[in-house]
Amino acid sequence: MRVLLVIPTYEPYYIHRPDLEQFYTENFDSFLNPEGNADIQLVITDFASSKSHRAFLRRYVESREGCFLIEGDQGGSPHVAFNVALHNFEYDYVARLECDLRTRDRHWLKILLREFEDPKVQIAIPTVNRDGNKSCEQNQDNAFERESRPVGLNEQFNIHCPIFSRRFFEPFDNRYPDMFEWHHNEFAVMYQLFALGQVANINFRANLVHGDPQVLPLKPAATGTGWGSRNDLDAASTQQFLRRTANLLNFLPTTGAPLTKRIRLHLEALKTQRWRYFYYRIFAKRIFEDFCQLDMPTKEAVIRALFFRPLSDYEKFSYSIYPSIPIDSNNKGYSVIRSTIHN
Length: 343
Ligand SMILES: [Mn+2]
Hints:
alpha/beta, Spore Coat Polysaccharide Biosynthesis Protein SpsA, Chain A, 31% helix, binds manganese (II) ion
């Protein structure tokens, strides 16, 4: 079984900091040798960090087995960075991690992977000691003995620490929802999951250490220009959204069941809303219940239009992989390197 660990990083103003590098190095290392027989690869995916940060990441990956750095020069959201990693590496399960996460022990992966024995489960979520989501009791001081449970529709979880099954990405060109820059994605993930009849389980037996109050204030990305501050659509994405809502109705059959008509009416009514209001409304209970009853291909088409950038957006991101993966290497099942994502 191939497990990919992906850590998007973004430190545009980073200047050599031995204490931070120590912190990150220990964090990355903690994930590398889990118990079990999974084939592990760690991919750090970095777009537009400073030269100094890039140098640190290069030193890190070149001194570790099975570690790779995706280096790109254009700024992108963490979701775009994550998707570029998915595109270039093979996997059965993928952990979406952060540079300020650390494992406590070597059992975490084995414990989380057990969730996927239930075929409905597509996401296995560990608890974290800090900055998880309270709604699903994700903040816990430590691992403890309690049955895992599904996260409810009106709950959320910190989306920067779970393990996803490949099936979660497959209907969407092997991508994670990428329409939003940052935390709005938590809504998109839950919507997609529930609409498609899938389950995310929170696992109380696995707990990760998240952040370090001593170190984090030093993190350059914690400043106003970091990812964390980008909770909005940028101007280009807003335009894209507006164009897209006008086309949403094309995905629904024009004739037929009263349900389809009801959904057409919902969407027609929402088309004139500004993007933020539009999403709040579409996340609302009534339209969601109707939406869930549509057939699977229609649901997937609408979700793709709502939560995913057009694939052509990725053409502007060029990048390289370091250390480079031999193009003809098939011993580990690597895919061929491409410098942009094309359909
Ligand atoms: Mn964090």
